[in-house]
């Protein structure tokens, strides 16, 4: 999908003198905490959220990966 | 006759739509608050432009879950006339009542200008008063009006005659010059241009009047 904001930022990077950027895409970060009884429930709830709310599947692709012992997100 | 105008937090063309319908054209209207669960006895529904729920997440993404829109979905399924203008078009695509999506304009600018359009009415009830291939001018005012869908989806829309409004000079990068589309039944129309801003003789540009007055013959 065309990302005009990413393209504009890439053009600005070139003006700053960094011309080697082959790709620069700008997106959103969603930080959430979810309580669920078990992993399968959490997985299905996150899939529902991703498919029906966070992403618009018409224009966006998404994938979900649950990491073991991931703990706190890096700052 | 009564025409329901949906009001979300952040709608800003709701009163313009009321002025065009009621003040200029004598069609009675009623505001429908997003939190209510039923439409009452309205004969048509207009989802106006603006920035529903601040356009947070994506344009129309939060509005889709408003209680009122469950009733709008049922009304549309029963063949009721539904018109989504600008942000209203974005809401209709997020709801899945119309295919595709509206994304950031190709050159990033918010575009506010008169847009020459070509009308291909097909079976769309809202456009029955326009001739095939008729050229009209309606104002556009949007930052996220670039219509996007898969090529096979666009081909299907075109084959079905659902691309009912095209830009004569594509301002935003929409695929197929799409400015407005209808559903297969022709009762739901979504368009980025603003017909309600082309209905008042005192401000000039009257090409939007026939779109709004089409309801008289349609629902009577």
Protein described:
The complex is a heterodimer of chains A (75) and B (220). By secondary structure, chain A is an all-alpha fold. In chain A, 37% of the residues lie in helices and 0% in strands. Chain A is built from two helices and no strands. The two termini of chain A are 28 Å apart. In chain B, the strands form two sheets. Chain B has a nine-stranded mixed beta sheet with strand order 2-1-3-4-11-10-9-6-7, with helices on both faces.
Summary?
By secondary structure, chain A is an all-alpha fold. In chain A, 37% of the residues lie in helices and 0% in strands. Chain B is globular and about 40 Å long.
Q: Decide which structural class fits the backbone of chain B.
A: alpha/beta
Biggest β-sheet of chain A: count, sense, barrel?
none
Strand numbers in spatial order across the main sheet of chain B: 2-1-3-4-11-10-9-6-7
Helix percent of chain B reads: 10-25%
Cα(first) to Cα(last) distance of chain A is: 28 Å
The residue fraction in helices of chain A comes out at 25-40%
Sheet/helix structural class of chain A: mainly alpha
Q: Which H/E pattern describes the elements of chain A?
A: HH
Which ranges of chain A are low-confidence, i.e. pLDDT below 50, for 5 or more consecutive residues? none
Residues in β-strands, percent of chain A: under 5%
Averaged pLDDT of chain B: 95
The helix tally of chain B amounts to 5
Order of helices and strands of chain B: EHEEHEHEEEEHEEEH
């Amino acid at each position: 999908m065309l990302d005009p904001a990413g393209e504009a930022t890439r053009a600005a990077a070139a003006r700053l003198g960094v011309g080697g950027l082959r790709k620069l895409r700008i997106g959103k970060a969603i930080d959430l905490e979810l309580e669920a009884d078990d992993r399968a429930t959490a997985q299905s709830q996150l899939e529902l959220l991703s498919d029906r709310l966070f992403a618009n599947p018409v224009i966006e692709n998404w994938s979900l990966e649950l990491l073991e012992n991931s703990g706190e997100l890096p700052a | 006759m009564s025409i329901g105008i949906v009001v979300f937090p952040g709608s800003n063309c709701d009163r313009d739509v009321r002025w065009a319908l009621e003040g200029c054209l004598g069609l009675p209207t009623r505001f429908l608050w997003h939190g209510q669960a039923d439409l009452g006895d309205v004969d048509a529904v207009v989802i106006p432009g603006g920035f529903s729920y601040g356009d947070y997440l994506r344009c129309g993404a939060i509005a889709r879950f408003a209680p009122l829109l469950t009733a709008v979905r049922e009304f549309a399924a029963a063949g009721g006339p539904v018109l989504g203008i600008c942000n209203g078009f974005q809401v209709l695509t997020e709801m899945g009542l119309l295919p595709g999506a509206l994304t950031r304009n190709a050159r990033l600018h918010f575009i506010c200008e008169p847009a020459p359009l070509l009308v291909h009415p097909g079976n769309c009830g809202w456009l029955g008063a326009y001739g095939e291939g008729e050229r009209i001018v309606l104002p556009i005012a949007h930052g996220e009006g670039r219509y996007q869908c898969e090529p096979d989806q666009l081909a299907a829309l075109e084959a079905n005659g659902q691309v009912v409004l095209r830009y004569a000079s594509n301002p935003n990068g929409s695929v197929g010059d799409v400015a407005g589309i209808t559903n297969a039944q022709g009762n739901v129309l979504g368009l980025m241009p603003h017909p309600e801003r082309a209905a008042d003789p005192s401000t000039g540009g009257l090409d939007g009047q026939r779109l709004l007055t089409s309801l008289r013959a349609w629902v009577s």
